[in-house]
Amino acid sequence: MLKILGKSTSINVRKVLWTCEEVGLDYQLEQYGSGYKPTDTPEFLALNPNGQVPVLIDEGFVLWESNTICRYLVGKAGREDLLSGTPRGRARVEKWMDWQATELNSAWRYAFNALVRRNPDYTSQSDINASIADWNRCILILERELEQSGLWVTGQTFTLADIVLGLSVNRWKMTPFERPDVPAVDAWFARLGQRPAFRRHGDNGTP
């Protein structure tokens, strides 16, 4: 059985748990991270030198970086509907996965730490405003894409892009600030809400 190290409320752990359930892979979750087992021990750092979750262990094979883990799980399950085996089809999905991990995550970091986590190191109002503006700008990029693509981010088929972006959009919706109207994103998010695995792992981290 797959072993996943990481706390079930972590956004990056949840995308891995959601992927496991979408593809029907059994797993055992061991809670690591803030409030649980520490990630700064020599034993954990030997698995992931970054000291971060999630970490996947599959019969001695150790993997970190959540989006990479999701790709691995889909490949292990042979689910080319979630990540195409063709170069162009795969690139369409991975483009949005990489964008989520770079542009989108960078945009929300300051505002989320200030407004949700109430981290005392994130109190600059100008930086909060800049982060909100950049976060909304990214969501409007997704809005324009969904207006064109249809049901899902890359077209008519649900893919890994929808999993990683679904968790990020959930975080955008739960953070208290003024957001633009995004009817295409709202409709897409409602479709995600019909998926049992999303309801378990994508909706504010409530297993």
Number of domains: 2
CATH architecture assignment of the largest domain: Up-down Bundle
The N- and C-terminal alpha carbons lie at a distance of: 19 Å
- Overall mean pLDDT score? 95
Which range best describes the helical content: under 10%, 10-25%, 25-40%, 40-55%, 55-70% or over 70%? 55-70%
Q: Pick out the low-confidence regions.
A: none
Number of strands: 4
The neighbouring-strand order within the major sheet is 2-1-3-4
- CATH class division of the largest domain: Mainly Alpha
Query: Remind me, CATH topology of the largest domain?
Result: Glutathione S-transferase Yfyf (Class Pi), Chain A, domain 2
Rg over alpha carbons: 17 Å
Overall outline: globular
Order of helices and strands: EHEHEEHHHHHH
Question: Structural class given helices, strands, pairing?
Answer: alpha+beta
User: Which percent band covers the strand fraction?
Assistant: 5-15%
The main β sheet shows up as:
4 strands, mixed
Count every helix, treating DSSP H or I runs of 4 or more residues as helices.
8
Protein name: Putative glutathione S-transferase YliJ
InterPro entries: Glutathione-S-Trfase_C-like, Glutathione-S-Trfase_C_sf, Glutathione_S-Trfase, Glutathione_S-Trfase_N, GST_C, Thioredoxin-like_sf
Pfam families: GST_C, GST_N
GO molecular function: transferase activity
List the helices and strands and how they pair.
Elements lengths: L1 E4 L5 H13 L3 E4 L11 H6 L7 E4 L2 E4 L1 H12 L9 H29 L9 H25 L10 H15 L8 H10 L3 H6 L6
Parallel strand pairs: 1-2
Antiparallel strand pairs: 1-3, 3-4
